[in-house]
Each structure stands twice: as C-alpha cells, then as structure tokens.
Amino acid sequence: MRFQSLKIPQKLLSHARLLWALHQDPRAPRKFKICAWLLFLYLVMPLDIIPDFIPVLGQLDDLLIFAVGYKLLLRLCSDELVEEHRSRIEGL
Questions:
Q1: What is the pLDDT of residues 8-62, one digit of tens each?
Q2: Cβ(78)–Cβ(29) under 8 Å?
Q3: Cα(66)–Cα(32) distance, rounded to whole angstroms?
Q4: What angle do CA 38, 44, 45 make, to 5 degrees?
C-alpha cells in the first residue's frame, strides 16, 4: 500500500519519455515540437502562475499545466505515431 505512491512519479516519467520520443521523431508535426518546447520552458521557468514556495498549490499548478499540455500535445500527433512510441516505451 505504501509503494502505490511510487506509481505516480513512474507514470510522469513515462509520459515525459513519450513526449521526448515524439519530439525526436521527424514524423511529428512542427506545431507539436514548438508547443512541447513552450510547455517545457514554462515548467522550468522560475516565474509561475502560483509561486512554488506556496505549499502544495505551487506544485499543483505545474502538475495541472503539464497534464493539460500533455493531452493537447498528444492531440497534435497522429494516433498511430503516439501508439508506436507508447508501446516501445512501455516495453522498456
């Protein structure tokens, strides 16, 4: 039961790997690559909507923006391309 909390970071890591793999694929549209960079820059930028020094809410806004951005980014790529990379990553 205690180790169930480890599944969330592992899933986040696999989602990040999927985005990276799609970004490296030349078949991914340019719009996807630009939006992926914008999402990455927002996440590493020191300025946030809610500053990170505010407990819980500071990290929650980053997580929410990543989740929404992730879903939107996957819509920009074809389903076949996403599934190809997802199956390869899950096989690791």
A1: 678 888 998 999 999 999 999 999 999 999 999 988 887 777 877 888 888 888 8
A2: no
A3: 14
A4: 80
Q: Tokens 């999402």 identify what position?
A: 39
The pTM score is 0.77
Amino acid letter, 37: W
> What gap in Å lies between CA 56 and CA 61, rounded to an integer?
9
Tokens of 8: 């969330």
pLDDT reported for residue 3: 52
Q: What is the 3-state secondary structure (H, E, C) of the chain?
A: CHHHHHHHHHHHHHHHHHHHHHHHCCCCCHHHHHHHHHHHHHHHCCCCCCCCCCCCHHHHHHHHHHHHHHHHHHHHCCHHHHHHHHHHHHCC
